[in-house]
Design brief:
Blueprint: E1 48-53, H1 66-69, H2 73-81, E2 84-88, H3 104-113, H4 120-130, H5 137-149, E3 153-158, H6 168-180, E4 187-193, H7 203-217, E5 221-227, H8 228-231, H9 238-249, E6 255-257, H10 260-269, E7 280-282, E8 298-301, H11 310-317, E9 334-337, E10 348-349, H12 360-366, E11 371-376, H13 377-386, E12 398-403, H14 419-432, E13 437-442, H15 444-449, H16 454-477, E14 481-486, E15 511-516, E16 542-543, H17 547-554
Parallel strand pairs: 1-13, 1-14, 2-16, 3-4, 3-8, 4-5, 6-7, 8-9, 9-10, 11-12, 11-13
Antiparallel strand pairs: 2-15, 5-7, 14-15
Length: 570
Amino acid sequence: MTTPGQQLFPEGIPTPPQDAGVFRAQSISGEAHVQPAARFTGKPLTPLVLLILDGWGVAPASRGNAITLARTPNMNRLMSMYPTVTLHASGEVVGLPWAEMGNSEVGHLNIGTGKIIYQNLPMINKAISDGSFFRNDAFLQATAAVQERTSKLHIVGMVSPGGIHSSQDHVFALLEFFRNQGLGKEVFVHAILDGRDTQKDAALKSIAKLETKMHETGVGTIASLSGRFYAMDRDNHWERTEKAYNAMRHGRSEHTTDSPLKAIEESYRQHIFDEEFPPTVVVGVDGKPVTEIGDNDVVIFFNFRADRARQLTKTFVLPTFQKFDRGTPIANLMFITMTEYERNLPVTIAFQPDHARFNIARMVSEAGMRQLHIAETEKYAHVTFFFNGGSEEEYAHEDRVLIPSPRVISYAETPEMSVRAVADRIIQELQHGRYQCIVTNFANADMVGHTGNLQAAIQAIEATDEAIGRVAQQVLNMNGTLVVTADHGNAEEMINLQTGEIDKEHSTNPVPCIMANSLLASQRSLWPPVLDGNLSSLQPVGVLSDVAPTVLQLLGIQPPSEMTSRSLIR
């Protein structure tokens, strides 16, 4: 048994052949950095192990940086001997909103597929900015249906700047779209109020902005208001959904108003804020609802997150719905959802999921190579489902191994988790020689980082480093290739240095990427040095999705054109 802090992999490395290639770091824009450049012409050295360190970010040393506080001789030696860069792992370059911290799901999607997989919010925002939103087929179908049927168009969704389930910018864009299409008085908005992902009383400002936008565009009338407690329940409290449905569908509620803003102000005076705002029907001067959702109408539900949009959607669209009495069925209703809320719902989807057809696993399989995906329980889905582009499919010659995670209340109790068992199995499989490619995840930095226990996180990092050294020793002794990277940061920011408070969240920091084999070792001097394991002085030269084409090139596999990111090898 080894002890944390022990250096394991060999001092010596094979002498590279004369035609060994040189790595050239690529920036996000594709412009080369200052390193000398040449083609990588060496023969692929297999087996290749892709080792993803979950939650292992890069940041300057600090009292809250568990990674720099830990003893990591094996990572330090890898970085000193082999080409090493840092990669962006958060925000728009991994498909998330600007400045949003990375996460394991998005990280593995990007690493595995070799392209930026845009998540729903930035995908729709991008469509608005590039104009494709205003050519969206589903919205054009909605316009045509309303005009042909002489019916009404209902925009349903949470009018909120929160950006978690919806964005009020999206409803504003819809109003502009329908103005351009010549609609106006036919459009009605059924506004859901937030109060959970925003301040409890943010709706007053949001609804005022909505009314201003309606006035500017000449499109739309607010038809109903409802707190998300009712309209966005996800826990089968169907009595809540029923109240929101009745307000929208039948114009029926215990609460009515002729002024949405006055209704919200009155609710605040009663200390009922946005989230619990009761479903309220807007009425005209005659005291009757300004509209109801009826036969031949069109509904657009503009929430982009699925989990809290499903119940209300099913209430409208499922022909066999039996959770409560919906009244007379709506005939010929066209229902459009912003994104896919659930497979096989009878709806039109405005923005289809960004499925990646190609990924490392598929390409390795099609090349006839055997591969193993292995992780402990906490990260097993990430090296399988997410790494394979959001698909449960196991490709030909792909095997999977799940190592159980410890059953403890907190991983601070067992900071080593199951990393030694995962490393044991990898080494065993390498020795058996069955696989040309192994994909694995070491979970410790992330899962122990989430506990907020700094000392436990330091122990987790040291246990991880020990396992890295053991795997490195085995694969490099076999003249194979080791690629070490991470999906996002976490353990490098355990203390908020501004407030002094414990920080359990992910970070927006870059992550390391080390590419190690005997053909590349002699080129290490062409890259900026990494002294004492300090990567924070290096500027990121790529993004997570650059890992896939890099791995494929190291395996001698031509990346498909759908992998729009670039290999770090030139």
